[in-house]
Q: What sequence folds into this?
């Protein structure tokens, strides 16, 4: 049985949560009220945990602005 991981990222000002494990990732968009809704994108199963942040940056790079120009994991 695999351990379920939960990661949150600030993606150019938006919060994205990814849960599951390599091979079975599920993405959620997190609203300002903390409620989650299914994301309209897929996280490839072959990505390792260490690759999630870079994947999100590549996927949403057009959303970058001068005041929200990075993607980082929220501890």
A:
């Amino acid at each position: 049985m695999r351990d379920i991981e939960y990661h949150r990222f600030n993606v150019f000002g938006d919060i994205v949560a990814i849960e599951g494990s390599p091979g079975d990732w599920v993405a959620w968009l997190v609203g300002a009220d903390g409620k989650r809704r299914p994301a309209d994108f897929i996280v490839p199963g072959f990505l390792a945990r260490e690759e999630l942040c870079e994947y999100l940056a590549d996927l949403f790079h057009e959303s970058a602005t001068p005041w929200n120009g990075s993607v980082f994991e929220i501890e």
Observations:
- Helices lie at 52-59.
- The chain has one domain: 5-64.
